Amino acid sequence: MSKEILETLIKLFALISRQDGGVTQLEYDFIKAYLIAELNEELANQYIDKYRDLVVGIEDADDQETIIAKRAKFEIIAEKHIVNEIRVTESVRITRTARKIAEAKLDQNQKILILVRLFELIAIDGKYTPSRKFVMEGVADYFNLKSEWNDIGAFVMCSDAQHLQFLTDEFHPRPSVTSAEKKDKTPEEIQQLELNNERKRKEGIAKAHEEILIVSENAPASPDFKHYEVEGFEGQIIFKYIVISDAEINKTKGAEPDKDKKKSKSSNGIYFVKYVNTNPNVTEDLKRNGFPMKTSAVYLYPNGSTIRTSKGINLYYSDVNAYFIDTLKSVKLSFQARKIEFKFPNGVLGVQTMDLSYPQGRLVGIMGGSGAGKTTLMNALSGIETPSSGAVLINGVDVHKEPKKIEGVIGFIAQDDLLIEDLTVYQNLYYNAKLCLAKLSEKEIDERVMETLESLGLDHIRDIKVGNVLNKKISGGQRKRLNIALELIREPAVMFVDEPTSGLSSKDSQNVVDLLKELALKGKLIFVVIHQPSADIYKTFDEMIILDRGGYLVYRGNPIEAIKYFKRETRQADADREQDNPEEMFKIIEKEVNDDYGRETGKRQFTPEEWSKRFKSHPEYPNKEVETINESPPSSLARPNLINQSVLFTVRDFLAKISNTQYMLINLLEAPLLAVLLAFIIRFQNEPKTGNYIFRYNDNVPAYVLICIIISMFMGLTVSAEEIIKDRKIQKREQFLNLSRFGYLSSKLIILFLLSAIQTLSFVLIGNAILGIQGELFSYWGILFAVSCFSNVLGLNISSTFNSVITIYITIPLLLIPQMILSGIIFRYEKMNKTISEKGTVPLLADVMVSRWAFEAIIVDHFMMNAYQKDYYNLEKKISQDNFKISFWIPALKERLDRSVENKNIKSEEATKNLKKDLELVRKEIRSEKFHLELLSQDWETTLTTDQYSSLKSDKIRAYLDTITNRYQTRVNDNSKDKEDLIDLIKEKRDKKYDITKQKNTYFNDLNFEPF
Fold this sequence. Notes:
Elements: H1 3-17, H2 25-38, H3 41-56, H4 64-79, H5 91-102, H6 108-125, H7 130-142, H8 149-157, H9 161-170, H10 179-182, H11 187-210, E1 212-216, E2 226-229, E3 236-243, H12 246-253, E4 269-276, E5 287-288, E6 291-292, E7 298-300, E8 306-308, E9 314-316, H13 317-322, H14 326-330, E10 334-343, E11 349-359, E12 362-368, H15 374-382, E13 389-394, E14 397-398, E15 410-413, H16 425-436, H17 442-455, H18 476-488, E16 494-498, H19 506-521, E17 525-529, H20 535-540, E18 543-548, E19 552-557, H21 559-569, H22 582-589, E20 592-594, E21 600-604, H23 608-616, H24 642-658, H25 661-682, H26 701-720, H27 728-734, H28 741-771, H29 777-801, H30 805-821, H31 844-847, H32 850-865, H33 869-905, H34 909-929, H35 940-943, H36 951-989, H37 996-1003
Parallel strand pairs: 1-2, 12-17, 12-18, 15-16, 16-17
Antiparallel strand pairs: 1-3, 3-4, 4-7, 5-6, 5-8, 8-9, 10-11, 10-13, 13-14, 18-19, 20-21
Helix pairs in contact: 1-3, 1-5, 1-6, 2-3, 2-6, 3-4, 5-7, 6-7, 6-8, 8-9, 16-17, 16-24, 18-19, 21-22, 24-28, 25-26, 25-28, 26-28, 26-29, 26-30, 26-32, 28-29, 29-32, 33-34, 33-36
């Protein structure tokens, strides 16, 4: 017990004792026994002396003689059982003492405890006089317990349930209408005031009854009392649940009460219990947490407590709590795991066959040693892994076979952080809320986020960036609570939490588990994998699942009873002693056999299989099957549509990236720096006459284009290679929200494409400017941007494929180097290994290389569309095409005609086959050319068949080819003349200062069209 509570109790005990004639021997004995029970003898005697001094008023004495006299008087008068000199009323002293006590740093539960002990003192001799009532009323008023103190007094002072009903009625007197209230009122209005007062009185009595639980064989007289029937139980166990109203809590905190919020029974309360013997001939032997319960004594009933009756009936805290929490009744949930078993791919059993069944409002722990299958079991129950056999049902819906029907029902909090480290605490929670609470308005979401942050004590760090392990911004406990907040904000009906206390201090661990308990009391079902919990944390759980190596279920039930169970199974002497250290339990489970010398042999006394068989056959621990709820599982999930999801993912990712200053600086400066480095190095001065730099003579341009492509691919890969793998943990949580995979990926592409657009544009702007490549900005940028986008997609694929960042970055060179080798720039295709290359053709491997197509696109576009070449391109194209016909096409056709004449005269199957092939080729070429066909006879195609072909007809076709050769040549000459005249035409109509040499030096490169 804290010093503050003791100091306060002693002052108030003395204040009570001073009333109505003074202290009696019963009161003195009660206080003495109470202090000795709570403290050691030496300290108890100190506080007893302090109590005596306060009773006789030594604190008011001015000198030592008076103090000695008053102490002597207490000793003499105490023997006569009464001190007559004490004043009956001490209004000023009461007010002053109560005010000092109220200013003490006591929480509301401590104040309730003090009030209970004061009523116990009064109940000793039953002297609840007006003066003592005045003291109690004053204390309750200063403690902000004005609406609870009468109900507490009735509970403490009652002798049984019937007496409690009577006292509750007595402690709620009928308030009369005051003279001030009657003023200017009609008789009807006065009557209405009296009716309202009576209605409020009855409501107060009904509320007081609702906060009482009677454990007995027969139902209590009041139907408002809650009743727990225990057959054959002699006597009554009375539980009192004291809840502090929101108005009083706000008063304590100095805040205004929230009138809009309805008071609800939650964990903001405290339980007390007392045992009353209703049959004087029979006394039940009751133990609370292993200690005997005295008749009519009031005991605190904290979390994790157990009352055991002489008939072997156990009353657990969770069972009692379920009677009072309203939300446990409003939520309807049944969770059933029927004969589930899980096998790993190698055939090893990770979870042995087991049955589990739970209703709503339970905090269930899963414990076990290393390799016991804790996480495997949780993954199977949550739907992450599919069990090899059996089924997991939520309200009758199979989690694995019908996942659509339970969308939003399950929440998962992994051991690892699932936070976006570059967003603030508020932003992490805000965007999570936007993705799962689409029906709420912007204002409602903001209110929900702030309410959640406040409930978790995170509102003061709302604008702090989350950070990571190497760059901590918030503490480990705050990170855990924020992880819980991500699920808490949408309030899933079933939650799975993996190692929530790992790496936390004892205080932070307790806070996290208390928070999970709060959620369970709201009607949630929460499974928690926990490792080495403290005694306080261990007692917080409503039920514990104990697993042994290999996934064997060796215990399921009340946590406190678990230790007793294993001690009884191993016949230990202190098996029935209350213990709350789970470490003792695991020492028993894993205890090894000792040899003759006392050394451990490495062989366990009981194998996991033996422990499992013992538990399943134990008569006291049957599997309690809950009733299957056939309603749809409760879900508050409301996802936005596909477009809105994509927008939210994009905005969230964008904010995360721009808030990472280092990331943005590197990615935005990388391209300009590489452009400067590359362009500066290859800008060499080689103009034949002056030695100055002229773009036309820079024979590094083809290599520059290739490096531009490789750099674009490299930047595209590096910005995207980690995108999916770093979000894998977050996706694991969001998979329970069934969010759109397309929306997620599209947001990645939007951000990456935007970043790639900026990178390639800055690269081209600087690189082309240094090298003097003019007029080609958008063509270069468009092609390089397309290459970078391809690399973004490729990077996302490898990010999704591999499980290690190191593996990903090792893979990047394996993707880039083949692009360089097979681009056709560094090595000629005809000089490559014959296994992959054939002379005159592009290898198939090269055809799938982006670098080859990107290089060709840039070179071709640059050659066709540069400011110099585009004036002459069409004429040069025609000249080139006609020269090709004259130099190659027509000679090739003549060669085919001559060969056909020879084959016509050879009588062999092969010659006939070649003849047919050659004539068909000539016929198709002439037909497709369509050039002056009027020079041929109408049946010219018929003459080019194997049957009618002859040397005479060959001569006619040759004559036609000679004629069109002359006409092609004429067209070449005309186009060449037009090209020469084009310079004068440009000077005349466009630019009088037009200089073809200057144009060529500025925009044209002698090597950018030649094969490298």
